[in-house]
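CO-FOLDING WORKSHEET

Operator: S.A.
Ligand of interest: nicotinamide-adenine-dinucleotide
Run index: 257
Mode: holo prediction, single chain
Checklist:
[x] sequence pasted
[x] SMILES validated
[ ] output reviewed
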Amino acid sequence: MNRVDGKVAIVTGGGSGIGRASSRLLSEAGAEVVVTDIDGDAADETVAEIADAGGSAVAIQHDVTSEAAWETVIAATLENFGSFHVLVNNAGVGGGAQLFEDTPFEMWRQVMSVNLDGVFLGTQQAVKVMRQAGGSIVNISSIMGMVGGANAAYNASKGGVRLLTKSVAVYCGSNGLPIRVNSIHPGYIWTPMIEKIASYIPGGTEQDVRDLLTPRHPIGRLGEPIDVAKGVLFLASDDSSFMTGSELVIDGGYTAV
Ligand SMILES: NC(=O)c1ccc[n+]([C@@H]2O[C@H](COP(=O)([O-])OP(=O)(O)OC[C@H]3O[C@@H](n4cnc5c(N)ncnc54)[C@H](O)[C@@H]3O)[C@@H](O)[C@H]2O)c1
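OUTPUT RECEIVED:
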């Protein structure tokens, strides 16, 4: 199971959902984990769960849209662990359920800022550190980075993550940098981001959300955070040593239809 033994991993948005499950699984598989989140208490909770399970992790409050905050996180990681080998750019926001015509420009900017600018900033910092010893960068995009959906800002941001990933993968490969960069494209995964959809349906319940979304997944269920975490671990580890610029689709068949 020790597929990332001795590696140091930074997971953004590690205080909830997919980020928390990924932090826990990376730890179980042997990594030292730096759990970052704009919600510092949530990051602390993840670290406490990892400690209870016998792992080693540190929490850092971190807004991925801030270049200065990224510099602090990288410096703290290097100070604590000497290097780092895995970056999971997971932090993200959904962006609401308004009609396209009613999307406020501020909301567009906010979604692009967290979901795309944040991944750019983290990836740039990681390439600077990893260029000698190498590493793996895992960017959490979405099925909404591959096919159209109702939320233009979310769609555009996740499509941007998909091609940013390929661009940096090609850059690293063609410049001899031993860094792999891949994206993951989850279908609907039951996390607080998806639970929130109930509030967009008048009188809606969580069961309504499940009933609405489950039929879009031929496998017959929604995903759980651990389903994506397993993909994160695979791309973080040397098991995926010939993969870069790839898209790992974990969607219960959503995009196969
Ligand atoms: N849940 C799904 O169905 C689904 C599907 C495809 C892709 N994704 C993507 O997976 C990632 C994780 O989503 P999730 O479902 O676990 O959501 P979540 O809401 O449970 O967790 C997101 C985390 O990101 C943090 N965050 C938000 N803004 C931040 C910022 N500016 N800086 C740092 N942290 C910030 C939040 O505090 C939260 O802890 C996101 O990028 C999301 O777009 C989710």
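REVIEW:
Residues 12-13, 15-19, 37-39, 42, 62-65, 90-93, 114, 140, 142, 186, 188-189, 191-194 surround nicotinamide-adenine-dinucleotide (CB under 6 Å).
The longest helix spans residues 105-130.
[x] output reviewed
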